[in-house]
Design goal:
The chain is α+β, with helices and mostly antiparallel strands. It has one domain: Orthogonal Bundle (Transferase(Phosphotransferase), domain 1), CATH 1.10.510. The chain contains five helices and eleven strands; from the N terminus they run H-E-E-E-E-H-E-E-E-H-H-E-E-E-E-H.
């Protein structure tokens, strides 16, 4: 991830100094444009899918310190997310390996986190309840797919510019041992 950040910074510096387009780092077919954030499990970049002409978010999870079995499990979990289709869960388009990193490309959601939404203005109990009902619907879909999120919090839920809510930050998702979802309390 650090190498990708350095390569991205270098390309931006050259473009600003010399006013010309430069090679941007790629993960799979996705051209990285901007660092969006870093969490405990990985780094997220704004990227461009030139094949489909759309912006995406690419999460890169550093699995270098993990064994091959754990890396394969992380890739399997990302594939599980890619099979999930629900209006309250960010859509995963593609998953893969880049060197020793597991990555997944997902829909880019322009908006703010629930944490930012709560801090921006006073909210009524009804507004807050509606947000968490939508999050619960997404979480139920994740569990129905046999996955456990394990990190639901206001900073891991996005509200897009049209008011639609999406669960994000699936770095801690894992399959339940039975292939069926377990409650978050028991998954810890």
């Amino acid at each position: 991830q650090r190498e990708l950040d350095i390569e991205l910074s270098r390309s931006r510096l050259i473009a600003s100094m010399f006013g010309r387009a430069v090679h941007r780092p790629r993960v799979g077919r996705f051209e990285l444009h901007e660092h969006l954030g870093r969490g405990g499990m990985g780094t997220v970049y704004l990227a461009r899918d030139h094949q489909l002409e759309r912006d995406v978010a690419v999460k890169v999870v550093d699995t270098r310190h993990l064994g091959a079995t754990t890396r394969a499990r992380a890739l399997r979990e990302a594939r599980g997310l890619a099979r999930l289709a629900h209006p309250n869960v960010v859509t995963v388009f593609e998953v893969g390996l880049h060197e020793e990193f597991v990555w997944f490309a997902m829909e880019y959601v322009a908006g703010e986190t629930v944490r930012q939404w709560l801090q921006r203005a006073p909210r009524t109990a009804s507004e807050i309840l509606q947000v968490w009902i939508a999050a619960g619907r997404g979480l139920a879909a994740v569990h129905a797919a046999g996955l456990v999120h394990r990190d639901i919090k206001p900073s891991n839920v996005l509200i897009d510019d049209h008011g639609r809510l999406r669960l994000i930050a699936f770095g801690l998702v894992r399959e339940s041992r039975s292939g069926r979802a377990r409650s978050p309390a028991r998954a810890s």
